[in-house]
Structure formats: C-alpha cells, structure tokens
C-alpha cells in the first residue's frame, strides 16, 4: 500500500530530518504541515523541496477546519505529530504559545483523526497510525544513581513546556482509549545534530565560542542530560511507526548521559581543534561563564531504551563523540545560516 504520511512540524529540526529519511523509501508520500514559527525553517528541506512525493502546507495545527480539509484531500495512512513549542526558557517567559500549540493543537489533531477514521473503510482504519512525539522532560528529575526512566514512570513536570507536553500525552491516551484512535507515543531524550536552532544548548555554545562571547552555564553545570543524534531519533521514529504496538509508549534514547559542563567542555575542545583562528589564550573553555540557574531546572534526565532495543531491535548508529565532532564541523561550515538568527536574538 502507498504510504501517505502527514508530518506536523516538518520544518523543525527533528521533523525535517524525519522527512528527509522518509522520502528515501519509494512509495512514500509526505505532506508537511508547519506554521513556520521562529524555530521552523524550510531551508532544512531544500534538498527535497522539489521531490514529487513531497508537499508543504503552511498551517497552524490549531486550525481544525484546515486540518480536516487536508486529511480529506490527502487521505493519509499515518500522521507523525511533532509540531510543538519546545524551548523551556521561552515557556517560562510566556506559556500561552505552549498551551495553544502543544495542548490545543494536539486536541485538533486527535479530533481530525477521529472524524477522518469514521469516514474511511475498515482496511485503512485498521492500518492507520498516529505517532505522538513527546519528550523525557515530562518525567522530571530523577535522582543521581537512580535507574534510567522507563515508559511507565509517573509524570512530574517542572516547566510550562513539560506540563504542556504531558497534557498532550494524556489527551492522546484518552482518545486512544475512548475513541480507539490507533496511537503510539514516543519519549525522546535531548536531540543534537545539524540544523538545530541556535537557541538550543549545543548551537548556543558553538555560536558564543566562535563569536568570542561568554558561554553561559546555568548554575554549577552539573545537570545531567541524555543525548541522542537527530538522525538516530528519526530512524527510530520510522521503526516505531511501522512496527510499534498501538496503545503503548516507547522511549528513544542513545543512553548517553553527561553533565552540561562536560558537554560544553567537549564542544570547546572540538572548537580548539577545528577553529584555531577563534581560539582565545587558554582555549575556548576560558569563555565558560556560570550564570544564575533558571527556575525549576531539573537536575537529571535519563531514559531507558531497553524496550525499543528488545521489541524493535533498534540501536543508535552515531557514537556521541563522533556526532559532536560532526555537529561542530557542520556549524563551522554553515555560519551564514545560523549567525543572523543569533544576531537577531541578541538585538531583541
């Protein structure tokens, strides 16, 4: 059967990588729905923009009428729901966009799917899948030395962002149970790689270091995060869509944890090697500057990916040190893409 997939948030960092990988499979058609918010950028998809099996629609997922029209015209066999506001600091500054996109938008996706499946024949309704992409942040802090978080852990949210994503998961679970929506939820750890918006941690460190500016580190920098290359994440999402069990949740993680300070120091070392022209006396790490911690800052995230490895046989392909070196190199080569965004942010 021809695969016709709606990807929401496909102009974002993860969504664009997902679309690029999906289009490598013959017989797959993609509609990318994105409202082109501040972190979206269609240049991420320039290499597939003219692909005969790809089309882009500028749309906000809170627009239920437009969603229904798109579903009726395209007749999708699956939806991969990635559209979300996703930056914690922005959610602390203003929570409303996160409520609108992550909660109301997810509601509209679910209602559109429910109405659509009610009008399709049994074969399509039985094979249809909705994949909801969530985050490890819904689980909140875990103590140092505690086992990595499994899919059945309780939600303990710490920011408007994580609370809105947790609410979206609850909606998906409710629609699955009440209306038999064939949904699967994934929780992913922190992503990194090419094309990530420079407001995120790794691109911020690279940009500040290359510009000779202080590299901000929240608090003591010992907060631990679990890092996953975006290409490995996209590959896992495709596997979950194809073979995941409806009504379940599954973690996606490379199970590589390190402190923020360790990560930043590793990036600085890569920049010392790859960009000696910007290297200050003592190296780029001399630019590290500790700043006041942000409110509600979780100390440790760590996801167990054992379920994914055991049920789907998935393993990450990109080792962390290799991925970081490649990522730093990419940002060095693509400064014209990210530098204007950094300058715009600093001017606000």
What would you say the CATH architecture of the domain at 3-194 and 228-255 and 301-318 is?
A: 3-Layer(aba) Sandwich
- Binned, the helix content reads 40-55%
What is the 3D form? globular
CATH level-1 class of the domain at 3-194 and 228-255 and 301-318: Alpha Beta
- The residue-averaged pLDDT reads 95
Specify Rg, calculated over alpha carbons. 20 Å
What does this structure look like?
The chain has a domain at 3-194 and 228-255 and 301-318: Rossmann fold (3-Layer(aba) Sandwich), CATH 3.40.50.720. 43% of the residues lie in helices and 17% in strands. The chain is built from twelve helices and twelve strands. The strands form three sheets. Strands 3-2-1-4-5-6-10 form a seven-stranded parallel sheet, sandwiched between helices. The chain has a three-stranded mixed sheet with strand order 7-9-11. A two-stranded parallel sheet has the order 8-12.
Brief sketch in words of this structure:
This protein is an alpha/beta fold and 348 residues long. It contains 12 helices and 12 strands.
Features:
alpha/beta, 43% helix, seven-stranded parallel β-sheet, single chain, 348 residues, Rossmann fold
List the helices and strands and how they pair.
Elements: E1 3-8, H1 13-22, E2 28-34, E3 54-58, H2 64-74, E4 78-81, H3 88-93, H4 96-119, H5 122-127, E5 129-135, H6 160-179, E6 183-188, E7 190-192, H7 201-210, E8 215-218, E9 224-229, H8 230-243, E10 249-252, E11 257-259, H9 260-274, E12 288-291, H10 306-312, H11 320-333, H12 335-347
Parallel strand pairs: 1-2, 1-4, 2-3, 4-5, 5-6, 6-10, 7-9, 8-12
Antiparallel strand pairs: 9-11
Helix pairs in contact: 1-8, 2-4, 4-6, 7-9, 9-11
């Amino acid at each position: 059967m021809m695969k016709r997939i709606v990807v929401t948030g496909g102009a974002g960092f993860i969504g664009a990588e997902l679309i690029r990988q999906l289009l490598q499979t013959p017989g797959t058609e993609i509609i990318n729905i994105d409202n082109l918010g501040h972190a979206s950028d269609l240049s991420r998809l320039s290499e597939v923009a003219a692909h005969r099996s790809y089309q882009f629609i500028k749309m906000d997922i809170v627009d239920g009428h437009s969603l229904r029209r798109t579903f009726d015209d395209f007749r999708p066999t699956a939806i991969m729901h990635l559209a979300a506001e996703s930056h914690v600091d922005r959610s602390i500054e203003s929570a409303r966009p996160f409520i609108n996109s992550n909660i109301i938008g997810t509601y509209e996706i679910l209602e559109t799917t429910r109405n659509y499946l009610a009008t399709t024949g049994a074969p399509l309704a039985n094979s249809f899948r909705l994949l909801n992409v969530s985050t490890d942040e819904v689980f909140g802090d875990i103590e140092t030395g505690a086992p990595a978080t499994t899919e059945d852990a309780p939600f303990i949210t710490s920011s408007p962002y994580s609370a809105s994503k947790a609410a979206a998961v609850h909606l998906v679970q409710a629609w699955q149970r009440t209306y038999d929506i064939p949904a699967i939820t994934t929780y992913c750890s922190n992503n990194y790689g090419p094309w990530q918006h420079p407001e995120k941690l790794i691109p911020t460190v690279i940009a500040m270091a290359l510009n000779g500016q202080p590299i901000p580190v929240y608090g003591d920098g010992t907060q631990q995060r679990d890092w996953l290359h975006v290409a490995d994440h996209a590959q896992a999402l495709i596997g979950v869509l194809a073979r995941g069990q409806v009504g379940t949740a599954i973690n996606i993680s490379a199970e590589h944890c390190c402190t923020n300070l360790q990560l930043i120091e590793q990036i600085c070392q890569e920049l010392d090697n790859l960009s000696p022209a910007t290297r200050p006396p003592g190296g780029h790490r001399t630019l590290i500057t500790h700043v006041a911690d942000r409110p509600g800052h979780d100390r440790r995230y760590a996801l167990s990916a054992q379920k994914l490895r055991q049920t789907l046989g998935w393993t990450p392909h990109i080792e962390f040190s290799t991925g970081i070196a490649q990522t730093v190199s990419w940002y060095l080569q693509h400064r014209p893409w990210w530098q204007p965004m950094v300058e715009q942010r600093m001017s606000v």
